[in-house]
Amino acid sequence: MKENFINTGIKDFGVILNPKKCKYLKTQIEKLRGYHKNIFYKSFKEYKKSGRIFNTSPGLKTHNLIYTHNLDLKFIDESFKFKNALSSIMGNEFRIIKRSVIMHVPLKLIPRWVKDKVKNIGRANLNPWIKDEYQDVQYFSHLDFHQDMSKAISGYDKFATFSINLDKVTAKDGPIQILENSQILGRTFYPHFVRQSAHEDNIWYYSNLEGDHIKSKNRIVTGPAGKVCGFHGLVLHGTSFNQSSKPRVSLRYLVSSKKSQFKKTIWGKSFKKIKGSIKGLSDLHARLDINKDGSYKDTGMSIR
After folding, report:
1. Omega before 224 cis (within 30°)?
2. What confidence tens digit (pLDDT) does each residue in 67-93 have?
3. Domain limits, the chain
4. Is the full-model pTM beyond 0.90?
5. How far lies 215's CA from each of 1, 202, 222, 266, in Å?
6. Which CATH number fits domain 2-286: 3.50.50.60, 3.30.420.40, 2.60.120.620, 2.60.40.10?
């Protein structure tokens, strides 16, 4: 446990939640937010009239499907195995900062006008193009390698991500891809400087553009419902396109450690391995792919 997370920044806990209950939760989510093209604005013209580019993602408590519809997550939050998994890294007084529903939408199901808007964007957040009442779920098409811990959330600037499979995830579903030990270079601006090996598909090279380079193995997170994977907030991760016929639905938990426990936890000790800066970058420098008006620049993407 210690050797694994501290060095790689990743811990695959396997199936620690009830698969049947995970699948049932997915059906409940789909009943409330069944995917259909009508959740999008009909055209860019309609978006310009009624939409917005800022504040389109689920909130901590408000405009978040989990809370506005009182989704029953007791089988997760009160699970001994789940709490043990979180506390094994974050300490027994961990704090769940945010819970959200994630929906990875297949490219074939996205309206053509939206597809044209996001096809060359590295982190294709679909929420700006989706009507306000449906923005309580986080939708995306694809996500290039990025860091979750690029800025503070709810006053916490150090947190880990725990992803929960609500159904079986295969290579066709656009699973999460994680670059092992990439947290070592600390916070770096996006788009991150990563290059794939010319000879090994699962090997990537990552630089902070200050003379430091590391070699990383790309871990692809597939598996059955109930599987939980945790990773460091500074680890580079992303997803390619969902090639299946249905959206991949999952839960994302952002979790922090109590300050008084921090140094004693696996989480706190993992920061001793980090050679780069862990100070938060300003919004101006954390995301170099965003224009002044909040719109996204075309940057292409490295992940495949």
Report:
1. no
2. 999 999 999 999 999 999 999 999 999
3. 2-286
4. yes
5. 22, 11, 22, 23
6. 2.60.120.620
